[in-house]
Each structure stands twice: as C-alpha cells, then as structure tokens.
Design goal:
Elements: H1 2-11, E1 14-18, H2 29-45, E2 49-52, H3 62-72, E3 75-79, H4 85-97, E4 101-106, E5 120-123, H5 129-148, H6 177-208, H7 214-228, H8 230-235, H9 240-255, H10 262-273, H11 278-282
Parallel strand pairs: 1-2, 1-3, 3-4, 4-5
Helix pairs in contact: 2-5, 3-4, 6-7, 7-10, 9-10
C-alpha cells in the first residue's frame, strides 16, 4: 500500500509555494501556518504535491535551493499578502523565468501596479469559512487550467504582455562527487557551529535574566549569521571588500526587514571579522555589482 502511494505521488506535478513564514507587522506567525494549510489543501485537491520553495530533501545552501525550486517547480502559488520583501524577490524570479504562477493575496493588501498584468486570487484575511471554501474552489480551478495551458504558445504569460519572447534559463553544471561532498560537509559543519552559537546565546539570555534590547538581538543575529558562513568567510578573505559586501547583502536578505542600514551591518561585520581598516568599513555601502566577477556571490 505504501509503495503504491509513493509511486503515485512521484508522478504528480509539484506546486511550489512562495509565502511568508515568519511573523510580520499585523501578521503573527500562526496566521501563516493557517494560510499554508489552506493552500496545501487546495493544491492537493487540484492533483499537485505542495512544496514550499525553501524545502528540500537534500543538504544544500538554502538560497540555491530556493532558486532551483523557483525555476524547476511545475507551477507556483505565491502569496503577496503584506508584501514581504523576500516573497516579492522570489516572485520576480519566477516571473523572469516566465513559468506558470498564480498570485494570491488577502483582502487587506493593495494591488501592486508592477505585477497587475497577472491575475490575483483574493481571500479574506479573517478566514471566514464560507469565503475560504470559495477561495479554495477558485484556486483549484486556476491551478488546473494554468497547468493545462502551460505549453500553449498563445497563453498570455507575464513577459509576453511586454513583447519579450526570450526567457532566461538556469545553467546546469556537473561537479565531481568528491567536490560536492566536500562542499556539503563544509556546509553541515557551518550549520552545526551556527546552532551551537545560537544555543549559547539563548542560554545566556535565559539564565542571566537579560533578554537584551533590539541592539543586543541585532548583534546576536549577526554572530549566528557569521557562524553559518564560517568556511565561506575563510575562502573569500583574500577579497575582503567583496566579502563584506556579500555578507551584508546576505544578512539583510535573511532578516527580511529594513531595520538595519547597510553601513551599520558592514561596520559591525568588519568589527567582528577585522577584514579592512576601520575607516574604510565606515565609508562602505552595499552594491549588487562586483569588480570580482570570478568569485561567486556567497549570499
């Protein structure tokens, strides 16, 4: 029975989910758990396997996993409620790949002009049962129709509305098994070290009676982030300015908010890692452009 179920599941197309998973202003974490349950139900009833784009069965760098799933998933449902920055970035990637996507939002989130050509399905933020059931039915129908039309050349996709008919693709590069194993062992080692640092910070807070203000929490988050990038930091030390830039971008991307300025993050990173003279760090700003194109971004 179990084997039959597994074989059947493997033949079903994957529906990726892009959505917030952490608390946001006016959106507690529990709210997103309820939204995920609603989306999972509709996706499953439509005949797809629901899969958060950050989920993976392999040990991999999280950003790489997200991009690969955004590109490879057969269809994606994206919840733009609250306009979470990470969600909007991932939505932009999927639209750039010009692959099937369905955008959903709650009734309190305003429409965004930039993505208005894509139809939005709306649900009530208060999860009124009758309205949610109607939303599920609409989503199921939209999933089925969009998936069936995905290979139709005349299907009006996002980029085609602007006359763009050439779409970017991800390049697949084969690596030697031993190199892949070394990379993954480094990643696991970094994550274990990061967990250790996180536990030490948690222990210090709980047993000292000091829960810290927002600045203390910022420093703690920065320490955890640095610990999770330990092997990459050592590898890219010969390019200190690029390293500071990419680390700052990666940290701010993970935080998903605008509480910290790039100069603040860069200065504190440099204070902890001692990469460049202090006066240079104070004058640095983050940039997505790099003079060191031969080095892959580490964010």
């Amino acid at each position: 029975m179990g084997k039959h179920f597994d074989a059947e599941a493997q033949t079903k197309p994957i529906c990726g989910i892009i959505m917030p998973i952490s608390a946001m202003p006016n959106y507690p974490k529990e709210h997103w758990i309820d939204v995920r349950s609603i989306l999972d139900d509709a996706i499953t009833l439509a005949g797809f396997i629901p899969n958060l784009v950050s989920d993976t069965n392999e040990v991999a760098v999280i950003q790489r996993t997200i991009v690969q799933n955004i590109y490879n998933n057969d269809i994606i449902v994206c919840d733009v409620s609250g306009k979470n920055p990470n969600v909007m970035l991932e939505l932009g990637m999927r639209l750039t790949f010009d692959k099937p996507i369905i955008i959903v939002k709650d009734d309190e989130t305003k429409y965004d002009f930039d993505i208005s050509p894509v139809e939005h399905l709306e649900y009530r933020k208060d999860f009124k049962p009758t309205e949610i059931n109607a939303f599920k039915s609409r989503l199921i129908g939209k999933l089925k129709s969009s998936y069936e039309k995905r290979n139709n050349r005349n299907y009006p996709s996002f980029l085609k509305t602007f006359g763009i008919v050439t779409f970017p693709k991800l390049e697949h590069i084969e690596v030697e098994p031993i190199n892949y194993l070394v990379e993954q062992i480094k990643f696991i080692s970094d994550q274990v070290y990061a967990v250790k640092v996180e536990q030490e910070i948690k222990y210090k807070r709980e047993y000292s009676g000091e829960y810290g203000n927002s600045y203390d929490e910022f420093l703690d988050e920065l320490k955890i982030f640095i610990a999770s990038r330990k092997s990459q930091i050592e590898e890219y030390r010969p390019k200190p300015k690029k390293l500071l830039n990419d680390l700052a971008l990666g940290f701010m991307l993970e935080q998903g908010n605008n509480l910290y300025t790039d100069s603040l993050v860069i200065w504190h990173l440099n204070f902890m890692l001692q990469l460049v003279p202090d006066d240079q760090a104070r004058n640095m700003k983050t940039s997505y452009d790099s003079d060191d194109s031969e080095i892959e971004p580490i964010i």
